[in-house]
Design a protein that fits this description.
InterPro entries: COX15/CtaA_fam, COX15/CtaA_HemeA_synthase. The chain crosses the membrane at residues 21-43, 79-96, 108-128, 134-155, 175-197, 230-248, 255-274, 280-302. Keywords: Cell membrane, Disulfide bond, Heme biosynthesis, Iron, Membrane, Metal-binding, Oxidoreductase, Transmembrane, Transmembrane helix. It comes from Gordonia alkaliphila. The protein is mainly α. It has one domain (17-305). 68% of the residues lie in helices and 0% in strands. The chain has eight helices and no strands. The protein has helices at residues 19-45, 69-97, 103-128, 133-157, 175-204, 220-247, 253-275, 280-305. It starts with 18 loop residues before the first helix and ends in a 9-residue tail after the last helix.
Length: 314
């Protein structure tokens, strides 16, 4: 007697993946990369960046960590890469097997899957350059780029999109739609600028990842002021977009509220950590907040340019 295999159970769901199945893996992909930001921050603030002084080995030609505090922390962060690879590959397989074919989802899954091992190589370069602050910054920004792409993947594959009865459809060629798009693009660009300047501040500060690592030799006070100026610019454009979304009852107003809340909390954490001497927990929370800001800015941009959620299929 033969037994039929349901789409949900065949190959653990990969045989004929549903949109919800693909969406679940997309969410896991995004969450894993955000976790990498947190663990990477923990490596930096605990001074464990050279806990494994070589790459891809962990010192003395071995692939296992020295049984030291710093070695275990750095090696644990490296091991997270394998989890990211597994999740990225699973997401890619689900995107490739999903029907009807979604070319955008396939491209996004491929970019994220390729980005994870590339990130591991960049991480190795940071070790080989003894935590050069500019290379470390590039390592962090590459993760933020992957997070933005993974967010797009989540947005693209979200099932059962509910509509708010209070939302008013806005024609794409209207002044309001164009203004919302322009503001969303500006918010996204300033978010990138703010995060980049945050890495410059970090490169001039005390959390180098190792006590012997060099800094970027910039004035921490001036670097912090420049970063703060970008934050205020982001606050202005972010709340302008929120005001427009609320007044015009745009579909993005809920996302705009969330972004404004995260931005305010991130600003408070930034000022508190600066005035209290950069305590470890606040530095890690601030890095986590940067990842959340990029998620929020990406969602706002996608909602502005893809209001009707058209889907490229074949």
């Amino acid at each position: 007697m033969s037994t039929s295999v349901t789409p949900a159970s065949g190959w653990l769901g990969f045989r004929t993946p549903s949109l919800r199945f693909l969406y679940g893996w997309a969410v896991a992909n995004l969450a894993a990369n955000v976790l990498l930001v947190v663990t990477g921050g923990a490596v930096r603030v605990t001074g464990s960046g050279l806990g494994c002084p070589t790459w891809p080995q962990c010192g003395d030609g071995k692939y296992t960590p020295p049984m030291t505090y710093h070695g275990v922390i750095e090696f644990g962060n490296r091991m997270l890469t394998w989890l990211l690879v597994a999740i990225a590959v699973a997401t890619w397989v689900a995107a490739m097997r999903y029907r009807p074919v979604d070319h955008v989802a396939r491209r996004l899954a491929t970019l994220v899957a390729l980005g994870v091992p590339l990130q591991a190589v960049i991480g190795g370069i940071t070790v080989l350059t003894k935590l050069n602050p500019w290379v470390v910054a590039f390592h962090f920004l590459a993760t933020i780029l992957i997070i933005s792409l993974a967010t797009w993947m989540v947005y693209r594959t979200r099932p059962n999109v509910a509509t708010d009865p209070d939302e008013v459809p806005v024609p794409r060629d209207s002044v309001i739609a164009r203004l919302a798009t322009a503001l969303a693009i500006t918010v996204y660009a300033i978010t990138w600028t703010t995060i980049y300047l945050g890495t410059v501040v970090t490169g001039s500060g005390p959390h180098s990842g190792d006590e012997d690592s060099h800094r970027n030799n910039l004035d921490p006070v001036l670097a912090t002021q420049l970063h703060a100026d970008a934050v205020w610019a982001l606050l202005g454009t972010g709340f302008a977009l929120l005001l427009l979304a609320v007044i015009a009852r745009l579909a993005m107003q809920r996302s705009a509220w969330w972004f404004a809340g995260i931005l305010l909390l991130q600003g408070v954490i930034g000022y508190v950590q600066y005035s209290t001497g950069l305590p470890v927990i606040l530095v890690v929370l601030h890095m986590f907040g940067s990842a959340l800001l990029m998620i929020g800015a990406t969602v706002l941009l996608l909602q502005a340019v893809d209001a009707d959620r058209t889907r490229e299929t074949a």
